[in-house]
Amino acid sequence: MNTMTTTTTTTVLDASDVTMRFGGLTAVRSVSLTVNSGEIVGLIGPNGAGKTTFFNCLTGLYVPTEGKVSYKGTVLPPKPHLVTQAGIARTFQNIRLFANMTVLENVLVGRHTRTKEGLWSALLRGPGFKRAEKESKERAMELLEFTGLAAKADHLARNLPYGEQRKLEIARALASEPGLLLLDEPTAGMNPQETRAAEELIFAIRDMGIAVLVIEHDMRFIFNLCDRVACLVQGEKLVEGTPEVVQSDERVIAAYLGTPFEGAPGADELAEVEAAEAAAPSTNSRTEEAQ
Ligand SMILES: Nc1ncnc2c1ncn2[C@@H]1O[C@H](COP(=O)(O)OP(=O)(O)OP(=O)(O)O)[C@@H](O)[C@H]1O
Ligand SMILES: [Mg+2]
């Protein structure tokens, strides 16, 4: 957190009473949440709690049935590209990279909203366009250095191991120069070392002056990383507070542990997964293109 006495905390994200209904199903019910400058806020909750749906409401992918989302005091229009332009970037639970483009090209795509060069300039490839292109490339390479992917700039995204694909998604999100970064399960599929590295990366992003809102199921990761944590259960915000408060809240514990472990794999399923892993090639095969 910022120790400079001159710095005042400002509200970066202000979501108030956001409700999202799909037909008869209320996936998110009257959820309010703020993220302040300098903060890393966590969003937890069991599968199907409405976490991703809430993100989709924040980023204009869904138009909330009710409620309002403001970024730095301005109400956001529910259009993804306008939300990105305003300063909110995100990554996806199911990785969305351009699998057949290089690592560098993927980051350049993320810079698109920040380059001011217009269509004619791009078509004529005039001096303004060339300068902007050069600057974009330099910035993209800086971000690849920052995320530890610079050596793989020319690799195709689909050839990266899974953990690096997640990092590339973060680099691409940062390329739009956001003031708020939303991460949907950034460590899913990562091994413990990669998870530790992701934690350091997110701290570094916060230190760059970017506020972070992160969804994760890995509680150790969340409670270590976040200044504040909110827990969603069945679309409603059950508890919000410091990691200490949330992790000892009985309702949160009950929400995770009190119900039968429906999602827990049985012995048969475990054996099946192990067999599949043994048979699979060691290179990544999990790239999921835009869905
Ligand atoms: N486009 C949609 N149409 C209909 N129902 C949807 C849609 N998107 C999500 N839902 C439903 O909304 C509920 C919340 O889903 P959501 O994906 O937001 O949960 P989540 O908390 O992100 O879960 P997980 O931890 O498994 O990712 C679920 O019941 C889901 O089936
Ligand atoms: Mg989700």
From TrEMBL:
SMART domains named among the record's database cross-references: AAA (SM00382)
Domain ABC transporter span(s) in chain numbering: 13-259
Matching InterPro entries: AAA+_ATPase, ABC_AA/LPS_Transport, ABC_transporter-like_ATP-bd, BCA_ABC_TP_C, P-loop_NTPase
Tagged with keyword Heme: no
Molecular function in Gene Ontology: ATP binding
CDD domains the UniProt entry points to: ABC_Mj1267_LivG_branched
Keywords of the record: ATP-binding, Nucleotide-binding, Transport
The keyword Protein biosynthesis is annotated on this UniProt entry: no
Any Pfam family matching the protein: BCA_ABC_TP_C
The protein, known as: ABC transporter ATP-binding protein
Organism, as annotated: Streptomyces polyasparticus
